[in-house]
Every structure is written in structure tokens, then in C-alpha cells.
Design goal:
Heat Shock Protein 90, 3 domains, 6-stranded antiparallel sheet, 13 strands
Length: 474
């Protein structure tokens, strides 16, 4: 049960139902209040009309005994004086509550019932006042009690005294209409909420079905560890389809990363096996026959093994996301320092340009490693010339290393930056290295916000260009 109500579908259904319920209850209350107010205003108008009709007769000097009063069940009428003495009431009115004067039996008053024709042939009409009061009450007419809306009007009678006329309008229609509307809402609201909840449940179920497919496939991929599998992509252009596409892109990137890591481990194991095996063989031979120990070969294998281990450790740190830092690096000084240390190289390195003021932010050791790897690569392929230059171009620092060797075929210019890749003419381990130098150089350049590319040099060999942002421009 908790799992069901913890699902997105259940939460969406419950949320939509609650929102609709609150909206419908608020709308229903507003409708009922408006209906009640409108019917109450209509009842007030009916009561006002009945009270004015009776008051008009009184203002016209009609004796109370001769008043033409409406039926009591439709408009119960009560006329009282300032002392709450009842002067006239509707026929069959047995009880009244809510007018301020509970009496329903007129008090005999010969003076009030006298005929004006006996004294004045042309009596002055009385003064008819405004409606001054409304109230709800109850009245019993011919044995039946009902609710009424009463209106009060003041008028001057034939004695020139001010009397109060109360007239009521029945509220049965109001109560019936409000009750019917409330009953309809009480019946319709649950039904409508059921429809809203069911519709939301079905719609969210249909919308989230691809998500369940993605989840199930991801669970299967996790269980099988088969990163070549992909989640189903819906034929839509909504968020779920974008989620599926992004998931597949992530799986593809993860598969490529794992495959690259697998190849890296395999190649590293292969590369390490050769110098270790060679070194072990030489040491075993030396242990058995000291006079046959090739000390120079053992040292060479040890150095090569040391360099390979250093390269692998640096690649591991780069893959782990090691940041280059923000130290200030003078690129011209770095170039001169790196070249000055290469006194025993096969081909002399010439610095053709070292522009001052090329300050970078990064790791001096890593940038020195890049330049050293480029020079090592040039030494393996150059015939007689290697030229290095450091200059400013378009607001960036550019270091170029050019040689006069055979160059890099255009089809291989991106492949040579892959790990453990050596071209056919440089595959010997003695001359070609392990194939990690250029890969390390490009990774370091990228982590410093730069690029490393290769083209054809003016001498016909390879031209490597290291493009880096100057300090403060990243």
C-alpha cells in the first residue's frame, strides 16, 4: 500500500483530485451563497411590494377594517402602532415571529377604524415612508408554519399617527432552490472527483509507461552489466523521450569509457609486460652468469619501465579529473629551459622564437611534460632539424614544434593522439615508445583550456601546434 501511494502516478492523482476538490468546494460555496443572496433579494423585493401596497391604502385614509390585505400564506401582513399594538393582520394569520410585535389579534380601536367620510369629504393623504428594515422570521398561517422575509415601512394613518406595516414574502422557493443545488453538488462532487481521479490515473499511467520501460531496462542492464543495451525511446517529443535519449547517450558514453578503460588496461599490461620480462631475463642471466649481465640493457629497460609507469600514473590522474591549478607559468622561459636540458639529443633543437610576456595559469610540470613529449616525438622522426617557437597569436599563446621528417599522413592526424597508438614506421618499442606521449599532451592541453593539433611543417615533416589561453583570459 505504501509503495502504491509512494508512486508518482498516485501522487499526481491525489494532487489533481485534491486541487479539483478544493476548487469545486469553493465554487459550490460561492454558487450557493450567490443563489441564496439573489433569492433573498427577490424575497425582499416581494415583501417590499406587499408592504407598500398595504401602506398605500393606509396613507389613502382607508380604515384598518377595510384594508385589502393579501393572502396570509403568500404575504402575511401585520400593522402595528408605535406602542406595538396590533391594528390589522392578514386573514388566517395565527402566529408571527421576527417583526418585533408578536401579536396577531387586532386591538379594538374605534378611533382608528372610524370613517373619514363622516368628518371630511376630502381628507389629506397620509405620508408614506421608505422601507427601513428587513428581517427573516416565521409565521403560522392556517396551521402551517413557514419561513418568511419581512419588510417594514412607516406610514401616517387617518389619525395622523405613524404606524408600521410588516409584510412577508415566503422563503420556501429559496430554501428549496438552495437545498436542491446543495444536494446536486453533494451527489455530483464525489462523482466528478471520481472521474477526475480515474482520468488522471489513466493519463499518468499512459504517460509514465515509457518511464517504467526505461527503469526496467536500466535494472536489466545493471543486473547483466551489458552496457551495449539501450533503453526504449518513445515516439514522442516530450520530456520522457528526451530522458530516454539522454539515458542512451549516457549509456553510450559509459560503454565507450569502459571500453576505453578496458583497452587501456590491456595495452598497459602488454606494454609493462615487455620491459619487465626483459629486465627479469637479464637479471636471471646475470645471477647465473655474472659475466653475461647486460648492465646497460637492464638500465635502459628500467628507465623505460619508469617512464611508462610515470605516463600511466599521469593518465590515471588526468582521467580522475585532476585540475591543473592556477600557478603562473612563463611560457617562453619554460621553452628555453626544456630545450636547454636536451644536450644529448640525436637532433639539435633550435628555438626560433620565444616571445616574452606569455604568462599562463596552470601546472608548470604538466606543461613541461607536454613540451617534452612533443620534442621526444620530433626526435624519433626528424632527419636533421627541429624548430621550436613560442609566440602570441590572436590574444593566445601558441607553441609550435616542427621537424623535417616524413610527417603524419592526413588520415592519421587524429588517430595518433589516441592512447597506445603507434604508426607502422614507429612501432618498435625501442624507437616508437609506448604511444602515450601525444595522448598525454592533448589531455593536458585540453585541461588547460587549449588545443593540440598536427599539420605539415614547411620542411615537409610534422608541425605540432599547442594553443593555450593567456593568464586571465580563461
Amino acid at each position: 500500500m505504501s509503495r502504491m501511494f509512494g508512486s508518482i502516478r498516485a501522487k499526481a492523482t491525489l494532487g489533481a483530485t485534491l486541487v479539483v476538490a478544493v476548487a469545486l468546494v469553493a465554487a459550490g460555496v460561492a454558487v450557493l451563497l450567490s443563489l441564496r443572496s439573489n433569492l433573498s433579494d427577490q424575497a425582499d423585493a416581494d415583501a417590499d411590494n406587499a408592504a407598500r401596497q398595504v401602506a398605500a391604502q393606509i396613507a389613502a385614509r382607508t380604515p384598518y377594517k377595510d384594508l385589502d390585505l393579501p393572502d396570509g400564506d403568500e404575504h402575511p401582513v401585520q400593522v402595528v402602532d408605535r406602542d406595538d399594538r396590533v391594528l390589522a393582520v392578514s386573514d388566517d394569520l395565527e402566529a408571527i415571529h421576527g417583526t418585533g410585535a408578536p401579536g396577531v389579534r387586532p386591538v379594538p380601536n374605534p378611533e382608528a377604524d372610524r370613517d373619514d367620510d363622516d368628518e371630511d369629504d376630502d381628507p389629506e393623504p397620509g405620508e408614506l415612508g421608505e422601507i427601513t428594515w428587513h428581517s427573516e422570521g416565521r409565521a403560522t398561517v392556517d396551521g402551517e408554519e413557514a419561513a418568511y422575509r419581512f419588510a417594514q415601512v412607516e406610514v401616517t394613518d387617518l389619525r395622523d399617527e405613524t404606524v408600521l406595516v410588516y409584510a412577508g414574502a415566503p422563503l420556501d422557493a429559496q430554501h428549496s432552490a438552495v437545498g436542491s443545488a446543495a444536494t446536486a453538488m453533494l451527489i455530483g462532487l464525489p462523482a466528478l472527483l471520481l472521474v477526475v481521479g480515474g482520468t488522471t490515473w489513466l493519463v499518468t499511467r499512459r504517460a509514465l509507461r515509457p518511464v517504467e520501460g526505461i527503469r526496467a531496462e536500466m535494472a536489466a542492464i545493471t543486473a547483466s552489466e551489458d552496457l551495449s543495451r539501450r533503453v526504449p525511446e518513445p515516439d514522442a517529443h516530450d520530456e520522457v523521450a528526451r530522458l530516454a535519449r539522454t539515458t542512451n547517450e549516457t549509456l553510450a558514453a559509459l560503454e565507450a569509457s569502459v571500453e576505453r578503460q578496458r583497452r587501456f588496461v590491456a595495452d598497459a599490461s602488454h606494454e609493462l609486460r615487455s620491459p619487465i620480462a626483459s629486465l627479469r631475463t637479464q637479471l636471471e642471466v646475470g645471477a647465473a652468469h655474472p659475466e653475461l649481465l647486460d648492465v646497460d640493457g637492464a638500465v635502459e629497460d628500467t628507465v623505460r619501465l619508469q617512464q611508462l609507469a610515470a605516463d600511466l600514473l599521469l593518465l590515471a590522474r588526468l582521467d580522475a579529473g585532476e585540475r591543473p591549478g592556477e600557478a603562473k607559468v612563463d611560457l617562453a622561459a619554460l621553452v628555453r629551459e626544456e630545450v636547454s636540458q636536451r644536450t644529448g639529443d640525436r637532433v639539435q633543437v633550435t628555438v626560433t622564437a620565444a616571445e616574452e610576456g606569455l604568462e599562463l595559469a596552470g601546472s608548470r610540470s604538466q606543461l613541461g611534460r607536454v613540451l617534452g613529449n612533443l620534442l621526444d616525438n620530433a626526435q624519433r622522426h626528424a632527419r636533421s632539424r627541429i624548430e621550436v617557437a613560442a609566440r602570441r597569436e590572436d590574444g593566445r599563446a601558441v607553441v609550435t614544434v616542427a621537424d623535417d621528417g616524413d610527417g603524419v599522413p592526413e588520415a592519421e592526424r587524429e588517430r595518433i593522439f589516441q592512447r597506445f597508438v603507434r604508426l607502422d614506421d614507429a612501432r618498435t618499442r625501442d624507437d616508437g615508445g609506448a604511444g602515450l606521449g601525444l595522448a598525454i599532451a592533448r589531455d593536458v592541453a585540453a585541461r588547460h583550456g587549449g588545443t593540440l593539433t598536427v599539420a605539415r611543417s614547411p620542411q615537409g615533416g610534422a608541425l605540432f601546434s599547442l594553443d593555450l589561453p593567456l593568464r586571465g583570459s580563461r
